[in-house]
Every structure is written in C-alpha cells, then in structure tokens.
Amino acid sequence: MRWLIPCAIALTALSGVAGLVPARRARQGELLAVGLLVLGAALGLAGSVVGFVAPDALRIDLPWSLPGARLLVRGDALSSMFLAPLFFVAAAGAVYGLSYWPVREHPRDARGVRLYYGITVAGLATLLCAANAVLFLVGWELMALGAFMLVGTEHERAEVRGASLVYLVSTRAGTLCLFGFFALLYAVTGSLDFDLGAVPGRASATELHGLFILALGGFGLKAGLMPLHVWLPGAHANAPSHVSALMSGVLIKMGVSGLVRATAFFPSPPLWWGAALVGCGIVSGILGVAYALGQHDLKRLLAYHSVENIGIIALGLGLALVGRSLGAPALVGLGLAGALLHVWNHGLFKALLFLSAGAVVHATGTREIDALGGLGKRMPKTALAFLVGSVAICGLPPLNGFVSELLVYLGLFEAAASPDAPAWLTGALGAPALALIGALAVACFVKVYGVVFLGEPRSAKVDEAHEVDKLMTGPMAALGAACALIGLAPALVMPVLARAAHTWAPELAEEVGPVASLAWLSLANGLLLGLGLVAAAWLAWRARAAATVRDVPTWDCGYAAPTPRMQYTASSFAATLVGFFAFALRPARFRPELVGPFPQRGTLFTSLPDVVLGRLILPAFALIGPLLARLRKLTQGSVHAYLLYMLVAVVAALLGWR
Amino acid sequence: MHYVVHVLLVLALPPLLLGIVNRVKALFAGRRGPPVLQLYFDLAKLAQKSTVQSRTTSFVFRAGPVVALATTACAAMLVPFGAHKAPLSFGGDLLFFAYLFALGRFFTVAAALDTGSAFEGMGGAREVTFGALAEPALFFGLLVLTRLGGAVRFAVVLGPGLADHWVEAAPSLVLVAVSLFVVLLSETCRVPFDDPNTHLELTMIHEVMVLDHGGPALGMILYGAAMKLFVLAAVVVGVALPASSGNPWLDWLLFLGGMLGCTVLVGVVESIMARLKLVAVPKLLVTACLLSAVGLVLLVR
C-alpha cells in the first residue's frame, strides 16, 4: 500500500523511455509509453484515494545520506487533493498526445515530448508527497526543467525560444526564493522536514515576515500570481496543447500547493499575510481576465485565464488566512474549501479547454481567433467540449466552476457580515471583485466560443476543417464528464474537502462539510435542467407543428450579401471592455489613416502586450544585462572550471556546516 | 398551496407587466395605447407561426431562447413573493440567483453570435459589457442585505426581519433599493439603458441580439424578458416593501400592489427620461455600484 505513489512516480518517470525506439516501431513504442503512464496514473489515483481514507498508510521514512535530507514521503489529504487532479489530467493529456503529437507527424521531437512529459509528471508527484525540503526541491526541479524542455519543443521558432527563456529565468528565480525559504526555515526550526505547526514559537517577527515573502515569491512565481505571471502566457501558448493542459491545469497549482503547505506551518499567521494574498488575488483575477479579453491568440487567451483563476484561488486562500488570524473558523473552512475545490475544478476545465483548443489548432493550423469561425458545424464534438469548458470556467451553474466560487462567495459574505474591520473589508472588496471577474469571464468566453465556433469561417483553411479522432475527443469527454459530475453532485466532494481543510487547520471538524446545503444546490441544478428540457421540448414541438425554413442567409436587417468578413471579430467584441481597463493594460492600436472620400484600403491592428514583462522586466534586464555580462568570464563552457567551482562550493559548504 | 399560487403567478402574470408599462407610457404621451393584454395576444400568435432559420446557425441559436427562459423560470422559484416563502430556498440561493442570469446572458449572446451578423455581434458585445458593470452593483446590494439579515439566502434577507432593519438602517436600504432598481432597468434592457421600442439597430442592445429569431422562439424570448422583469421587480418589491399583514391572502394582494407600483415606476421612468448615450451607460452603472457601496459603509460605521 505505501509504495503505491512511489510506484506511480517511477512508472511515469520512466514511461517515456519506452518510446525511444527506432522509427519503424515508433507507434508501438508510443502506445507502450502512454500505456505505462496511464498505468502509473491509475496507481497514483488509487494512492490519492488511500491518502484521503488512511493517510498514515502511505507514510515512508528512509534515511538519505545527504545532510538534512530524508526520504520522507507522506500522502495526507492535502497532498491527495493535488495528486488526484495531477494524475487524472496527466493521463488524459497523454492519451490525447498519441493523436495530437505522434512520432508520425513530429518525427524529430515527439519522443522527447513523451519522455519529458513523464519526467514532469513524476516531478510533480514527488514534490506533492515530499515531506522533506530536499526531496521537495528534487521534485520541484524535475518539474521545472522537464517543463522547460516541453515548452521549448518547437525551438526552431523564435517565439518559442523567447517564451522558454522567459520561463527558465522565472523558474530559476522562483527556485532561488525557495532555497532562501527553506534555509530560513532550517535556521528557525533546525530541521528540513515539514513539521506542521512547529515554526511560530521559535521565529521572530522579522523571520516570519521573511518566510512569507520568500514563499510568496517562490510559489507565487510558479502559480502565476500577478505581477509574477510574466512567464505564463508565453509558455502556455507555445507548448504543445496537451502540455499546456498539464501546465495550466496542474503545474501552476504547485505554487498554490506550496503556499497552502507553507502557510499551514503557522496556526495564527499575521493578518497582513491573508490581506496580501487577497489583494494579489483580486488584482490577478481582474487584470488576468481583462488581459484575456484583449488577446487574439486562442491559447494565450486561455493562459491569461489561468492567471485569473489563480487569483480566485488566492482570494479563497487569503480569506482562510484572514479567518485564521482573526480566529473565525467559518472563514477558514469556506475560503480553504473554495480554494482547494477550485484547484480541482480549474484543473479539469482548463485542461478541457486547452485540449479542445489544441484540436482546433490541429484541424486548422492556426491559433489566431480572428481567422477562425463556424467550427461548430465542422467539429461538433470539439465545439461541445469547448462549450462545456467555457460554461464551467465562467463559474456558471450547473457545472463545477460555480460550486467552488459559491464556497468562496459564502466565505466572503460571511466575512462581510463580521464586525472586525479586516474581515468585513475583505468581504466587501472580495465579493464584488469576484462578481466582476465572473461577469468579465462570461464576456471573454462568449467571445471566444462565438468567434471560433459560431458564425461563418473567416478563412478557407477553416472551411475545410474536420473533426479530430477518438483519441483526442475521448480525453475531452472524460474531463467534461468530471466537470458535470462535480457541478451536479457537489455533495460528493464535500467529505474530501473537509478532510483536506482539517489537515490544514486541525481546529476545523474533520467529518462535516463546511456547508451542508450543497445537496440543495443539486436539486436547484436539477430544476434548472428540467425547465430547460421542458422549454426545449416545447420549442421542438412547435417547430414540428409549423414549417421551418432553413436554407436562407442570415436576415441581418435585410442586407442581401453578407460576407464572413462582416462578422464581429474578437477585437471588436472586446473593444469597449478593454477600453475600461486601458489605464492598466495600455493596449496598442495601429489605426490606418483614412484620407479623402475614397480612402485606400487600410487595416486596423490592435494588440495587448504584457505590461509587466514589456515595460518593467525586459527594460530592467536590458539595463543590468551589460553588468551581468562580466560574469560570463566565469562560465566559458569549460568542464574543468565547473568542476573546480563545485569543489570550492562543497568545501565552503562543509566548512560552514556546523 | 401558496407555492402553487407562486408558480401560477410566475407563469401567468409577466406579460401583464409589460402591458402596464406600455399603458403608463401611453398615458404620459396622451395616447390610448395598445391593450394591456397585448403581449398575451402576441405570444399566442407567435406560438402558431413558422420559423425562418439562417443556414449559418446551429443548435446554439435555438438554445439561446430556451436557456434564457429556463434560467429565468428557475430564478423565479428562488425569490420569495412578498411575505410568502419561495418554493426553493437554500444557503447561497442569492448567488445561484445572480449566476443564473449570467448563464442566460451567456447563451443569449452566443445565439446572437451564431447568426454571423455584425449587428447581433454588436448587441452581444454591449450586453456583456453592461452586464459586467451591473454585476458588482448587484453584489454590493446583496452584501448590504446579507450583512443586515445574517445569512446568504432570500428567505432570511427578504424575510420578516427586514421590516425591523428598515427602522435602524433605513439610509442603507434606501440606497440599496435604488441601486437594485437601476440594476433591474439595466438587466431588463429598459430606458435609460436600452429602448425596447426603437427600430434603429445601431442603438439597441437586447432587441438587436434577437433580430434573427422568429415564431415560437421569438415568443419565448419575449416571454422570458417579461418574466425577468417580473422576477427582478419581485426582488426590488421585497426590499422596498417588507410589510406583512398577517393574513396570507392579504399578503398576496400586498405583493401584487407592490409589483404594480414597481411596474408603474418603470413606465414613469421610461416616459420622462430619454435613453442615455451609450458612453454614459457605464457611468450610471458605476453610480449604482457606488450607491450600494455607500450603503454598506453606512452599516459598519
């Protein structure tokens, strides 16, 4: 039993090796590799179920010769909370990849993608169940470097090279923060093991604040909290789509998992921690969705929605921290349960959206939203999958996004009713902000769905697009079904959430869910579906009673010759809303100059480059770049020199160690 | 028994409200106006008609009216009518209520985009833009109500306790009632946000989204719009008129009187105001948002 998760990790890590066979056997190798990964994922899922039921059954404690390190593996409910979506999404993505990125079509890099995919999954699983900082960092680095290789898959394109470089620099910076975090933790507690609730008694106020800032920096960079999100849009847009699904659905949640774990060390955190997370959450949520509204690239748009959803998760976690500081268990339970369930939900619907976006890219060869259109008729299954994902990510009933947002809302409303100023301020700012985020997400997803799947094709290539095969639609169906299940029967996940919340905050009850009314929500969703069916049946009955004329163009107020170019585009649909946020987004508009009564043909072009990356980080790097270039003398690629550096470092470390 | 009355009222009365609005407008304009029951006749006629559907459209186009009506009808089951309880009530039903309308908006706009028409795309863009601004206003209002009531459910915030809160927190509740009324006008696309009578596509929001719908589907849209007015008016009446007579049947009369008052108010606003310029609409919505926010601040003092 206790080797379930280590077995899963080993299987997934090595799965890609099976694919490294000569081209003539490539398909068998591929199938074997994916089969191993799916088997590993199944073991891992079983392990995460055990983690919910009997956490101690998974505990492994073995010595390790590295100083401070132990092979300490634990699978409590909190780890399982993150392991379950990891293995589910990883398996769905791997199967999808069989058809999306096969060796047949990508002979040069498909094997590598499969190998690094397995390594990344193994790294993710390792860091999730590690209970020792060294083991954690090993997993963390496996994940970070595996993902770097995956992002750079199509490195012959300059755009991809840029994105993977930004990702590499960000993840290195994040790891640096984590080294600082664990070093400080060691200085305070004298141990590199994760010992719940052991820290605060021994730490001074400065050390506490330092710990939180380092954790926020390291884990926030991975999660993509604004303004630390700079790597995220480029990396998600440029990786192969099943990799984007894994990264967006699961990998960025490692930042969340880290923050959850790190804050669990402190039973009564300072108030400003929660406030800072709530603030970051609100900013990430609103600006993330505002950025998404202005994007033209389908996958980049989805990536900015990850920033938005991480913002919602941070809002819930921040609320839980505020509740813990103030000693209000209702806020802790609702905020944490909402945040953790949103981790699941976002993993499911974002993976679904990335996989269906990948199907669109696969069928049409473009990610440009304004070149698409009318795909709903040509790819009905993909369109349905994208529709389900859209409704879910907007947090609309009856799907799963609503359930987690409901929990966060209930916590925020509870906070707003409190007499404590910090609590009511959190609620009074958070609830309307979350409402705004939800409404903007509706605007954004109705735009994408409408422009990509409805109306008429905007280019010839799109007109000829065909539905993708079962290996791609199958994983989408599985993810969509999971979204519907959590949405329609949320009471099923309540015990799981209660266990995880209890692990984080032992003062919360282990068995009872934070809110008992979720069964009623199922009833209300059932009523909604029933009313919809009745209305649809009535319409179908009336349509049968009287003739329906179908073979006509859109009426369009009597205009006789509409063309696809006249349709509303993604840019025009979002123009007003992007204008509201122009103070923060700085949209760029290139407008043709029209002179005279018969002007020349002109093209309007709008774009929304990332302000933090474009106006802050890149200029700063350009400034300090020449200074840092002097360091290059030390790194000339000579192995001898590197070995010498390592020797010096080890000797220095040994001298410093006690 | 009273649940049956609730359902019957929701099903039967909405078209009447629009008749009353039009009658008020006619009175102000010195016209006789269409019969109060005109919308019932229109709906009966539309249900018999055949439909024309563009070849561009798909099932989403047909789903738009269905989802819009189903979400509104579902929302109607959550709102208590006057002193009577709603058939369906649970913790968090306020939020479910708000998100049902967002679901309706999603599908209405998607159906508009399904036609591939620039006009309908324009209407859809405006709908989601103004919807995004109305949402925070609604939620500030809900925050005030839940802070007073102590639970996130209609049965509590619009329950018997509200009458007492009117004594101690009248300023906040007045602000919230005004703000919710503005949200009602925006969500139901009435003047000053949108003019349901205009026939100039460039200036419209809701009407332009449904240009291509005809026959039974159009009837469904009109009925759904009327029901949305009914449901939101019931919320405004619930906040503004929390009185209870003690006799259940008298309470129904009281509720209907309140609904009549609210409907007449919509008609009066429509008669004495012009539609706002589109650029001014966001300002009004932000104002509504700030009104409720001030109401919330007044409560914490």
Describe this structure in words.
The complex is a heterodimer of chains A (658) and B (301). Chain A has 658 residues and is an all-alpha fold. Chain A has helices at 4-15, 26-53, 77-100, 110-129, 133-151, 158-189, 205-223, 232-238, 241-251, 253-264, 271-293, 298-326, 329-364, 375-378, 380-393, 400-416, 421-453, 460-463, 470-488, 494-504, 518-545, 570-580, 582-585, 611-629, 639-656; strands spanning 60-63, 70-73, 548-552, 588-590, 605-607. Chain B has helices at residues 2-12, 14-29, 38-48, 59-76, 93-113, 118-149, 154-157, 161-168, 170-187, 206-209, 215-240, 248-272, 281-300, and one strand at residues 51-54. Chain B has one domain (2-300). Chains A and B meet through helix 15, helix 16, helix 17, helix 21 and strand 3 of A and strand 1, helix 4, helix 5, helix 6 and helix 11 of B.
Summarize the entry for a quick read.
The complex is a heterodimer of chains A (658) and B (301). Chain A is mainly α and 658 residues long.
Radius of gyration of chain A: 25 Å
Question: Percent range for helical residues of chain B?
Answer: over 70%
Describe the main β-sheet of chain B briefly: none
Q: What is the helix/strand order of chain B? A: HHHEHHHHHHHHHH
Number of helices of chain B: 13
β-strand percent of chain A reads under 5%
Major sheet size, sense and barrel closure of chain A: 2 strands, antiparallel
Q: Biggest interface and which pair forms it?
A: A-B, 85 and 84 residues
How many strand units of chain B?
Answer: 1
**From N to C, what is the helix and strand string of chain A?**
HHEEHHHHHHHHHHHHHHHHHHHEHHEEHH
In DSSP terms, counting alpha (H) and pi (I) runs of 4 or more, how many helices of chain A? 25
Q: What proportion strand of chain B?
A: under 5%
Largest sheet, spatial ordering of strands of chain A: 1-2
The number of distinct β-strands of chain A equals 5
Distance between the termini of chain B: 43 Å
Structural classification of chain A:
mainly alpha
- How would you sum up the global shape of chain A? globular
Mean pLDDT of chain A: 90
